[in-house]
TrEMBL record:
CDD domains: TM_PBP2. The complex is composed of two ATP-binding proteins (MalK), two transmembrane proteins (MalG and MalF) and a solute-binding protein (MalE). The chain crosses the membrane at residues 17-38, 44-61, 70-90, 280-305, 317-340, 371-392, 426-447, 483-505. Part of the ABC transporter complex MalEFGK involved in maltose/maltodextrin import. Probably responsible for the translocation of the substrate across the membrane. This is Maltose/maltodextrin transport system permease protein. It comes from the Bacteria. It is a multi-pass membrane protein. It is found in: Cell inner membrane; Cell membrane. Residues 281-504 form the ABC transmembrane type-1 domain. The gene is malF. InterPro entries: MalF_N (IPR035277), MalF_N_TM (IPR048464), MalF_P2 (IPR029345), MalF_P2_sf (IPR047103), MetI-like (IPR000515), MetI-like_sf (IPR035906). Belongs to the binding-protein-dependent transport system permease family. MalFG subfamily.
Length: 513
């Protein structure tokens, strides 16, 4: 690519023309993709790819864009995988996009327009013939007659098409298709409307039969639909995203509309969302902070223990203590789910045998949170232990020898020498661990799935849900998919995490100074 904008701008430089040709070929392929995205209604993705094409071409052709050439891949990755998803999520937050309002208005109108009803008249069995790339249909009447109906030839269809039929005593030209081959072209047959000589029409009613049908709705002005049977009118309601009949009843499916700040106001004002949201937000912060604290304490103590020279077999202990980190997390979580089972788990059996109690780990909110912290501490302490082992090796042994001469205890060494010397390099890693636990979806999804549920919540919300699992359940849970509300909550999460990250960086800078 350097040949494009370097000093070798000579018309006879073959490398420059090869690079230009390669860039042009890439642009043409991407432009074809943009056209396909635009044709399918994916405007956001089409604009994104078009922006990538224009900026990439400018960077690799223009002299002014030369300095950006080496950082362009990184900027492209940030734009595609961070900025664009964020902007797309915020955009969805201002819509009613959900499982019941999934399609655009044009598609919903087409679905209603495709609805038909059976009208009086004779039905016909049919057979299909193929001649080259064209097909013909033979309609067999139930009446006693020596003539039958033959359709005009038709080929591959992508939209509804009217085809005439004529009476004939001869068979169509070509090869009669077997029933299995007729099934393969049913997507074409469904688009056919057969116009009969007497002015009637036939449509496909089953895999073996064409019958008289009529469309229920006719299109009016301003996307209005008129019922051809009784004259009732369906009007699109641009506030709710549904077609509404004369009685005010919503007709499914719904369509996507912009609803402004409705999703955000629901999060703030709806008690069934606001209360669970604040409760889950508080628990998310608490869970993340306690997970970092507990894993740090245990990891540091284990690191000090395996670094203790009088301890024999340090390597064996180090290997055993790292095992929870080596085992895939989803396996460990599912094992703990079985161990904490309220009726058959080994933990409750042991507690019942020793103390006569069987805690309701999955039914009681406090116990469920305690269980989550126990499991996450088990999964996370090996990481902290590995970090601390590396940092402990960087502390000079002379400091501990001097403290031993002064009569310092191991506890004094820990708080006066070890922690002050390792805390500064640990802070960025602790912040990263906090961010990881803040979005620890796998743990909650596999261990409790958010249970126990929060009473009075109007959305799927549980006492052990983190913000990320709460948002995931709203967007993709089994109780309905409200993508607009989930995107609004995700926007709030982004703002909160941004503020927390800013405060952490500020506190870290102040602590370092």
């Amino acid at each position: 690519m350097e040949a494009i904008s370097s000093a070798g701008n000579k018309s006879g430089n073959p490398g420059r023309w090869v690079a230009l040709g390669l860039l042009a070929a890439i642009d043409l392929i991407l432009l074809y993709g943009v056209t396909m995205m635009y044709a399918s209604g994916e405007m956001a993705f089409a604009l994104l790819v078009l922006l990538i094409i224009t900026t990439g071409t400018w960077v690799f052709i223009s002299h002014k864009g030369y300095s950006y050439r080496y950082v362009y891949p990184a900027l492209l990755g940030v734009s595609v995988f961070i900025v664009f998803p964020l902007l797309y999520t915020v955009n969805v937050a201002f819509t009613n996009y959900s499982s019941s309002n999934l399609l655009p208005l044009e598609r919903v109108k087409a679905i209603h327009m495709a609805k038909t009803y059976r009208t009086p008249g004779e039905s016909y069995n049919f057979k299909a013939w193929q001649q080259g790339e064209n097909y013909q249909l033979l309609f067999i009447s139930n009446k006693d007659t020596d003539k039958h109906l033959i359709s005009a030839p038709f080929g591959e269809l992508t939209e509804p098409t009217e085809v005439t039929a004529r009476l004939s005593s001869e068979l169509p030209d070509g090869k009669e298709l077997a029933f299995r081959d007729t099934i393969r072209i049913r997507h074409i047959l469904k688009l056919l409307t057969i116009m009969l000589p007497d002015g009637g029409s036939l449509s496909m009613t089953s895999l073996r039969e064409f019958g008289p049908q009529a469309r229920i709705y006719d299109e009016g002005s301003n996307d209005i639909l008129i019922d051809s049977r009784n004259g009732d009118i369906l009007t699109p309601d641009m506030t709710t995203g549904y077609y509404v009949d004369n009685t005010g009843e919503h007709i499914s499916p719904g369509f996507t509309v912009f609803n402004g700040w409705d999703n955000f106001s629901r999060v703030i004002s709806d008690p069934g969302i606001q209360g669970p949201f604040l409760q889950i937000f508080t628990w998310t912060l608490t869970f993340s902070a306690l997970s970092v604290l507990f894993t740090l304490i245990i990891g540091l103590l284990m690191a000090c223990l395996v670094q203790w020279e009088p301890l024999k077999g340090n390597g064996v202990y180090r290997l055993l203590l790292i095992l929870p980190y080596a085992v895939p997390a989803f396996i460990s979580i599912l094992i703990f789910r079985g161990l904490f089972n309220q009726n058959f788990g080994e933990i409750n059996m042991l507690l019942n045998m020793l103390f006569g109690i069987q805690p309701e780990w999955f039914s009681n909110g406090f116990l469920a949170k305690t269980m989550v912290l126990i499991v996450n501490t088990w999964l996370g302490y090996p990481y902290m232990m590995i970090l601390c082992i590396g940092l402990l090796k960087s502390i000079p042994d002379d400091l501990y020898e001097a403290s031993a001469i002064d009569g310092a205890t191991p506890v004094q060494n820990l708080f006066k020498i070890t922690i002050p010397l390792i805390i500064k390099p640990l802070i960025p890693l602790l912040i990263a661990s906090f961010a990881f636990n803040f979005n620890n979806l796998v743990l909650i999804a596999l261990l409790t799935d958010g249970a126990p549920n929060i009473i009075g919540a109007t959305t799927p919300a549980g006492a052990t849900d983190l913000l990320v699992s709460y948002t995931f359940r709203i967007a993709f849970g089994q109780y309905g998919q409200d993508y607009g509300l989930a995107s609004a909550i995700a926007t709030f999460i982004f703002l909160m995490v941004g503020v927390i990250a800013w405060l952490n960086l500020k506190a870290t800078r102040r602590f370092t100074e």
